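FORM 7B: Structural annotation worksheet

SECTION A. Query
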Amino acid sequence: MKRTAIALVMTLLSALPVSAGNLVEISDAWARATILTSRPGVAYLTITSAATDRLLEITTAVADHVMIHDVVTVDDVRRMRHVMALDVPANRPVTLAPGAMHLMLTGLHEKLREGEKFPMTLRFENAGEISIDVAILGIAAAGPQGETE
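SECTION B. Predicted structure
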C-alpha cells in the first residue's frame, strides 16, 4: 500500500511542468491545419512572464524542427528571418501571430488535422521546460477566437 501511494505521488509530480515558480504563462497556442507533410506547418502563441526570460528551444513530436521566425521588411520586401532565441520581457506579453513572428514546424511527420491537438515543449533560460498542447485550427484560421483570413 505504501509503495503504491509513493508511486502515485511520484507520477503526479512528474506530470507537472517544470518552471521557475510558474513565472511563465503560455496562452492561445494554436496552429493551422496542413494539407501536405512536405510543406512546413506554422504555430502561434502568447508568452507572458513575471520576470525577464529567454525562449531557447521548442520541440514537438509532430515535426523534426521548430524554428522561431520573425518577419522583416527590407526594400519593401517582407522576408522571414530565423531567430535563435526570443527575449521575453517581464510583464509584457510576447504574441506570435499571423503576418508577424511565428513558429515554423519543418519535417512534419503527419498532416496537422483541424480539431486535433499536439504537444509542444518550450525551454526557457530561467523557467526551464514548459509543455503545452497546441490546438489545430482551420487552414485559413487567423486566431483562436475563430476569425479567418
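SECTION C. Observations
The helical segments are 2-14. The longest strand covers residues 63-74.

SECTION D. Sign-off
Analyst initials: ____
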